[in-house]
Write a structure and sequence with these properties.
Length: about 400
């Protein structure tokens, strides 16, 4: 591997975290190379494709039918006993939003990075990592051979299965209870609720997780589930949960499967350290997925904006040491960490809660005039009808 390319910033992984970071650093006038191991950005899709409306404004992406399949009015949460909590636009607001075509979305973000000046290589896999004192040397495997790239700063945006952070000596191991295994079918010929995303919660449907139905068109939806690692004993368990859900629900049982995808998501707290000398870790690689919902695109993009800003400042000062990159740590944590911590506690609590309790909670909330979907409002609603359930939910305070 003799050939060497030198850049200011090397971004590894062309998902949302990588593309948004690459765009921000390139906008600052720095040389950026983004490498993606897959032949086509965003393909295959591994996502339920639900994003919040706020996300597009945050990253400066215009709403466009080429990547938006459907716009939602809100979300419905369905309890094991069939109680439905409807979160309309006045409560769910911009939190629930669009069902997207994720491959088109990812490609659009990559093009924005390229337009800003970033160079992009596909079928280019980072395979080695070496701290060179004044930067990092990364080995890249290409179809045509191999090349080493020296960068003043590297961005590990290599997703859930991330290796880069580990190569840099950062602890990334996850406990089994902090991983959800997800499987999703795109289904045609089912009964959709076209303006609402639906979440089926409780052990009756799936233990330690939920089933989602995200409508893309009338009669077509992504139907998937995440199941906590504690409840996956053998290969095929996740598929069995999803197949059983579909078979037992007449709205879905006559549908046809047109696509299958799946993968792991972290339902953990974020990494304790997301910077090292000449290294910034962003998105799923930094375990930034929301531990309650399993959604990660918003958090990945939010952190990517903070990463881009910090990297530009560090390059400007000609100092990409850990200390110089430290502001990134503070910036993304200020925006995301509190909610992640709260949702982590909620996720832990939900692992223990029985279907009977969930039924009480959801029926209590659905019959209560909620002003807002905050923990306090939920506890107030539940307490007004089932004071005994408050003891079970106490930890959420
Ligand atoms: C089944 C499922 C459903 C989901 N549904 C939703 C949802 O509805 N809404 C939501 O917000 N989130 C959802 N998520 C989570 C969401 O997909 C992720 O949070 C999001 O993709 C994170 O973006 P990222 O850029 O950090 O990582 P990714 O999108 O995973 O991108 C990482 C990229 O790095 C590349 N890469 C990895 N290693 C290397 C290497 N060594 N060299 C070069 N390239 C490399 C990968 O090929 C990949 O393209 C879901 C996840 C799963 C698995």
């Amino acid at each position: 591997m003799n050939e060497e390319k030198v850049v200011d910033c090397l971004v590894i992984g062309a998902g949302p975290a990588g593309s948004v970071t690459a765009r921000e650093v390139a906008k600052g006038g720095w040389s950026v190379l983004m490498v993606e191991k897959r032949p086509e950005i965003g393909v295959p899709v591994r996502c339920g494709e639900g994003i919040s409306k706020q996300l597009l404004d945050m990253i400066g992406l215009e709403k466009d039918p080429s990547f938006i399949s459907a716009e939602m009015d809100g979300a419905k949460i369905i309890s094991p006993g069939g109680h439905v909590l409807t979160l309309g636009p006045e409560i769910a607001g911009p939190e629930v939003g669009f069902i997207i075509e994720r491959e088109v979305f990812d490609q659009r973000l990559a093009k924005m990075a390229a337009r800003a000046g970033a160079e992009i290589w596909v079928r280019a896999e980072a395979v080695s990592y070496e701290d060179a004192g004044d930067g990092v040397v990364v080995g890249i495997k290409l179809i045509s051979g191999a090349i080493s790239v020296k960068a003043r700063v590297v961005v590990a945006a290599d997703g859930f299965e991330s290796l880069i952070a580990r190569w840099a000596g950062i602890e990334t191991k996850l406990d089994i209870k902090d991983i959800d295994t997800c499987l999703q079918y795109e289904m045609v010929g089912i009964e959709t609720d076209d303006r609402y995303t639906e979440f089926f919660v409780g052990r009756r449907y799936v233990p330690g997780g939920y089933v989602w139905c995200f409508p893309k068109e009338h009669g077509i939806a992504n139907v998937g589930l995440g199941v906590n690692g504690l409840f996956v004993n053998e290969a095929g368990d996740t598929k069995r949960y999803l197949d059983d859900f579909i078979a037992s629900n007449p709205r879905f049982s006559k549908g046809k499967i047109t696509e299958i995808n799946g993968g792991g998501v972290s339902v953990s707290l974020p990494l304790e350290e997301t910077v090292a000398d000449h290294l910034v870790i962003v998105g799923d690689a930094a375990r930034m997925i929301d531990p309650l919902t399993g959604g990660g695109v918003y958090n990945a993009c939010y952190a990517a904006l903070q990463a881009g800003k910090t990297i530009c400042e560090a390059l400007e000062k000609n100092d990409t040491s850990k200390a110089a990159l430290e502001p990134y740590e503070r910036r993304w944590r200020d925006g995301l960490e509190m909610e992640m911590a709260r949702n982590y506690i909620a996720k832990e609590k939900l692992l223990e809660v029985s279907d009977e309790t969930l039924d009480k909670v959801i029926s209590a909330i659905s019959g209560y005039d909620m002003k807002d979907i905050t923990t306090e409002e939920i506890l107030r609603a539940v307490g007004s009808r089932y004071p005994e359930v408050l003891k079970v939910l106490g930890g959420l305070m």
